[in-house]
């Protein structure tokens, strides 16, 4: 039966409807949605299958101690990495601050001492 349900999903039937109709798992009432997972958080067989799929792909049936599963990956996100467009201004500001700090230290240690009498008291 799982292979038939998978084939229906591959043929274009709505995965959420199929999950609601055929699943007995925890996400059945929610169209098969079970949340977001990082690699290593699921049973090894499910983990291997989930992290080998591209978004929109449906796994072959996976048998575990809890039953037979079909997985579909909706979206893959990075491991804490953010797109360059999201961090561009932060990087620019950090680089500017580092350059400003470097110039200030150079001014303080070199230019200021060359132009003025500096006496260091302990």
Q: How does this model look, in words?
A:
With 122 residues, the protein is mostly helical. The protein folds into two domains: 2-69, Roll (Chitinase A, domain 3); 82-122. The chain is built from four helices and two strands, in the order αααββα. Strand 1 (62-64) and strand 2 (67-69) form a beta hairpin. The N and C termini lie far apart (85 Å).
| Major β-sheet annotation | 2 strands, antiparallel
Record the strand order, biggest sheet: 1-2
Low-confidence stretches: none
How much β-strand is present in the residues?
under 5%
State the shape: rod-shaped
Number of strands: 2
The CATH architecture name of the largest domain reads Roll
Question: In terms of quaternary structure, what is this?
Answer: single chain
Encode the helix/strand succession as letters. Answer: HHHEEH
When the domains are counted, the total is 2
Q: Provide the CATH topology of the largest domain.
A: Chitinase A, domain 3
Number of continuous helical runs: 4
Overall pLDDT metric? 85
| Cα-based radius of gyration, to the nearest Å | 28 Å
CATH first level of the largest domain: Alpha Beta
First and last CA, distance: 85 Å
Based on secondary structure, the structural category is mainly alpha
Share of helix, binned: 40-55%
């Amino acid at each position: 039966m799982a292979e038939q349900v998978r084939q229906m999903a591959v043929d274009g039937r709505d995965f959420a409807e199929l999950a609601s109709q055929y699943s007995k798992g925890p996400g059945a009432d929610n169209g098969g949605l079970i949340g977001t997972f990082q690699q290593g958080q699921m049973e090894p067989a499910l983990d291997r299958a989930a992290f080998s799929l591209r978004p929109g792909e449906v796994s072959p049936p996976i048998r575990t101690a809890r039953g037979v599963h079909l997985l579909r990956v909706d979206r893959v996100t990075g491991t804490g990495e953010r797109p360059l467009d999201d961090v561009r201004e932060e990087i620019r500001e950090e680089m500017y601050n580092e350059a400003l700090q470097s110039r200030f230290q150079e001014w303080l240690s070199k230019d200021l001492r060359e132009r003025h009498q500096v006496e260091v008291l302990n």
